[in-house]
Automatic annotation (TrEMBL):
Catalysis performed (reactions): N(6)-[(R)-lipoyl]-L-lysyl-[protein] + 3-methyl-2-oxobutanoate + H(+) = N(6)-[(R)-S(8)-2-methylpropanoyldihydrolipoyl]-L-lysyl-[protein] + CO2
Protein name, as recorded: 2-oxoisovalerate dehydrogenase subunit alpha
Similarity comment text for this entry: Belongs to the BCKDHA family.
GO cellular component terms, A-Z: mitochondrial matrix
Residue ranges constituting the Dehydrogenase E1 component domain according to the UniProt record: 106-319
Protein task: Together with BCKDHB forms the heterotetrameric E1 subunit of the mitochondrial branched-chain alpha-ketoacid dehydrogenase (BCKD) complex. The BCKD complex catalyzes the multi-step oxidative decarboxylation of alpha-ketoacids derived from the branched-chain amino-acids valine, leucine and isoleucine producing CO2 and acyl-CoA which is subsequently utilized to produce energy. The E1 subunit catalyzes the first step with the decarboxylation of the alpha-ketoacid forming an enzyme-product intermediate.
Species name: Homo sapiens (Human)
Cofactor(s) annotated in UniProt: thiamine diphosphate
EC number(s) from the headed UniProt entry: 1.2.4.4
Keywords for the protein's UniProt record, in alphabetical order: Metal-binding, Mitochondrion, Oxidoreductase, Potassium, Thiamine pyrophosphate, Transit peptide
Major localization class: mitochondrion
Region (Disordered): 33-52
Keyword Lipid metabolism: no
Keyword Repeat: no
Amino acid sequence: MAVAIAAARVWRLNRGLSQAALLLLRQPGARGLARSHPPRQQQQFSSLDDKPQFPGASAEFIDKLEFIQPNVISGIPIYRVMDRQGQIINPSEDPHLPKEKVLKLYKSMTLLNTMDRILYESQRQGRISFYMTNYGEEGTHVGSAAALDNTDLVFGQYREAGVLMYRDYPLELFMAQCYGNISDLGKGRQMPVHYGCKERHFVTISSPLATQIPQAVGAAYAAKRANANRVVICYFGEGAASEGDAHAGFNFAATLECPIIFFCRNNGYAISTPTSEQYRGDGIAARGPGYGIMSIRVDGNDVFAVYNATGGPKARASVGPSSPSTTGTCGIMMPLHAMGLWHPVSHQQELSTAPKPKGTTKPILESYLKSHLLGHSRYQLYIHQDAVRREKPQSNLNRESLI
């Protein structure tokens, strides 16, 4: 899974215009963009009258007819901290998280993965009407959630249950919401997986695509006006990025200099439409500069890369009496074939042969979790190597992560 995370910040140019930056991600090699234009020599103007006066842009005159081709500009690179074997590539990029947080990341991913299986099977059995799994996207949830403050406001779409889970949302309430029973805080009025929690600053999910994007921008602008020390993060998929609300939200966020992080998780399909039928060029990440938003792509299977990329924008987007407002935008691309990297064949076989729970109460679920410990590819390798360094069996770490 490749993830792109975009953090946008606002800077002032010497001509007095304000711009913001957007961060997004994309799959390596997909619609690869070959080469870049050689840099032009900056023109010198004898007077301001000779300089181009193109509203809202920084431009220079040329005397040769030349169109900018979409396939000659180098693609936005993909940021990562670990390789696929769980090894830190550049030690200076290691976030050096404490053991407690490392284990919490692993526990949240494992718990989410197992809850997904139980609820997905419940839907297939007709016990609940609807369910959307988070397979392959666990790292993007917990990596970004760990970099935020618990008071930062979250606008999710369908696949951000891991953010709530990292904020210690109870399993009983996940189940109650999907079953729409008497314990459901929404009184059974929402579709399954449409979670929300005021105490954990997670805005209730709505079904229409992309409606949360302009709403999140409005909430971020309100936080800026109130001079609150708070950041808004808005999650959405590449399909939602094709909606008009997304473009309006990006533009408002940039021009109003809102303290917001746009986090686009791209799994390669918008419900059922592949990316090849949605857009051209260098994917969604390349839209950021067009709105004046600085962009970056991040490997979504790399929890530490997601953590770093979200934490950087969050620090720059903080709003306070003495800090300038900034805009952060994040995007994640997750091609479906990369999910095999997240769920090894051995893990898939383990799931297919594991006994299935016959209920969804907490004791049964926890028993199931402790009996069938799940692995998460790259992060599992990192956990194993860390356990070896500390001479502690990984099986003990697995059990610690679920107790």
